């Protein structure tokens, strides 16, 4: 039986994989599989997997599952071709390891950031901010602008998803019985959160990828501040007069933060400073600084755990309280998002290894031109998640000026605002404000959002003209 299997593996596998073996070699061992059936199948696998990702809201199948499977299948097919040709190529193994290293750096960076966000959430930092906003008795129009502005300035530090969920909770608590206000406020929050994340290396996964790749320096991202602000302000100004000019009822709800909340916020800022310092001055990967910052939280968590009896006094409780545990905050990280990112990196890396990204880069960046290609990237990110789109651009490595790299960073970050399904913030709010904020309620304001998108690009060309 073993002999039969060995014969099948030695004869049938090459026979199955050999048809159409008109490979053009790129270098010593790299094969061009773009016209081979394995390349077409890999494209089909990725397309089907992404259809499942886009249908997550309806199927309730976590988005990480199909892309992880697709990644394994794509690289399995690639490796099988090389085995059939006469041995395992070192190129395949090196390419997979390279993709894994890129993923590991981003995954660990995001894991630390998520852990800090979860720690601040557990210490009631966000609940306290929400209760303060509710108690102030703002009008609907004031709240519309306040939640938008806060979303714009919080998302560069916290991620846009957390920011949008926090601001939406405020909107629902204050104007939950006014569907018109909730709907338009949610549109504004999504646009503001996505715009705010575009000018900070920490605001979005796409900006983080560009920074960690070393293409754009940390401070250079802030050249996008004014274009990003325009992207938020133009649609907000157009929506302003549609917001009900009414005064909602005021709540006396008060939420006080738990002991250590402010110190955790300070430690998070110190962690960001450490990551930036390690990268800019010591030329170490930013993830090393972030993991060092995780140690700050771990040590402070140890202190909170050892002094847990003080929590009862601080909160006015009698008896024991649950002590702070930093590893429970790690466990609460968005693991589905982190594993989805793994699948995307490996899938796109596989398609790039096959040769499709080189073809795409030639069409987009040589035939269309960098500006047209980068604007198209933003429009595409409204339909397809901006993570694979940006990773594909980074994998193409087009020869562009700093101004063009900032342009694609801007468009990939804010382009998702064109549709409610174009960003994690929009998808999350459709669930949180179900019945009020929908695909079509967002689509109604797409012309205003598109006006902001176009204006932000023009402003970028104007104020950053020297970078092109």
Structure in words:
The structure is a single chain. This protein is mainly alpha-helical and 468 residues long. It has one domain (101-467). Helix content is 70%, strand content 1%. It contains 23 helices and 2 strands. The chain has helices spanning 2-17, 37-54, 56-59, 64-84, 90-122, 125-135, 140-154, 160-175, 179-197, 205-212, 225-239, 261-280, 286-306, 309-314, 326-331, 335-354, 356-368, 370-380, 386-396, 402-414, 424-432, 439-443, 446-463; strands at residues 25-26, 30-31. It has a two-stranded antiparallel ribbon with strand order 1-2. Strand 1 and strand 2 form a beta hairpin. Residues 1-28 have low confidence and may be disordered. It comes from Thiohalomonas denitrificans. This is Na+/H+ antiporter, NhaD family. Residues 1-24 form the signal peptide. The chain crosses the membrane at residues 34-55, 67-88, 100-119, 140-158, 218-243, 287-304, 338-359, 365-384, 405-425, 445-463. One of its GO terms (molecular function) is antiporter activity.
Name the descriptors.
468 residues; mainly alpha; two-stranded antiparallel ribbon; globular; disordered N terminus; transport; transmembrane
| Total helical elements | 23
Measured by DSSP, the beta-strand proportion falls in under 5%
Q: Give the total of domains.
A: 1
Order of helices and strands: HEEHHHHHHHHHHHHHHHHHHHHHH
Overall SS class: mainly alpha
* Assembly of the depicted chains: single chain
Largest sheet: 2 strands, antiparallel
Adjacency order of strands in the biggest sheet: 1-2
Shape: globular
Distance between the termini: 65 Å
């Amino acid at each position: 039986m073993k002999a039969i299997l060995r014969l099948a593996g030695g004869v049938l596998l090459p026979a199955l994989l050999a048809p159409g073996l008109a490979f053009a070699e790129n270098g010593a061992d790299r094969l061009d599989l773009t016209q081979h059936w394995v390349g077409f199948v890999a494209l089909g696998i990725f397309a089907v997997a992404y259809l499942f990702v886009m249908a997550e809201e309806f199927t309730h199948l976590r988005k990480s599952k199909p892309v992880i499977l697709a990644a394994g299948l794509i690289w399995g097919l690639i490796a099988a071709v090389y085995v059939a040709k006469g041995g395992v190529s070192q190129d395949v193994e090196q390419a997979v390891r390279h993709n894994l290293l890129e993923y590991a750096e981003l995954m660990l960076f995001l894991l630390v950031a998520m852990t800090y966000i979860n720690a601040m959430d557990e210490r009631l930092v966000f609940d306290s901010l929400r209760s303060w906003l509710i108690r102030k008795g703002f009008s609907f129009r004031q709240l519309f602008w306040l939640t938008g502005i806060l979303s714009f300035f919080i998302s560069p530090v916290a991620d846009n998803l957390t920011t949008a969920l926090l601001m939406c909770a405020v909107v629902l608590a204050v104007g939950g019985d006014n569907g018109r206000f909730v709907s338009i406020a949610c549109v504004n929050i999504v646009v503001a959160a996505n715009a705010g994340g575009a000018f900070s290396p920490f605001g979005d996964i796409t900006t983080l990828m560009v920074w960690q790749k070393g293409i754009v320096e940390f401070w250079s991202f802030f050249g996008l501040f004014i274009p990003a602000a325009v992207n938020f302000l133009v649609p907000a100004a157009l929506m302003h007069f549609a917001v009900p000019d009414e005064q909602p009822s005021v709540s006396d709800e008060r939420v006080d933060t738990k002991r250590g909340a402010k110190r955790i916020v300070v430690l998070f800022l110190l962690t960001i400073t450490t990551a930036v310092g390690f990268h800019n001055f010591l030329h170490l990967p930013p993830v090393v600084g972030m993991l060092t910052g995780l140690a700050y939280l771990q040590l402070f968590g140890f202190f909170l755990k050892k002094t847990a009896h003080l929590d009862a006094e601080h909160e006015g409780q009698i008896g024991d309280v649950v002590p702070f545990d930093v590893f429970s905050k790690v466990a609460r990280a968005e693991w589905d998002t982190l594993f989805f990112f793994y699948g995307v990196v490996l899938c796109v890396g596989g398609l790039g290894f096959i040769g499709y990204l080189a073809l795409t880069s030639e069409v987009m960046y040589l035939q269309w031109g960098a500006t047209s290609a980068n604007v198209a990237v933003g429009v595409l990110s409204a339909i397809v998640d901006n993570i694979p789109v940006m990773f594909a651009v980074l994998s193409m490595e087009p020869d562009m000026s700093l101004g063009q790299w900032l342009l694609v960073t801007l468009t990939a970050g804010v382009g998702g605002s064109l549709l409610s399904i174009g960003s994690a913030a929009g998808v999350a709010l459709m669930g949180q404000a179900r019945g009020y904020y929908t695909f079509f309620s967002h689509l109604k304001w797409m012309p205003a959002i598109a006006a902001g998108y176009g204006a932000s690009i023009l402003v970028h060309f104007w104020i950053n003209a020297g970078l092109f």
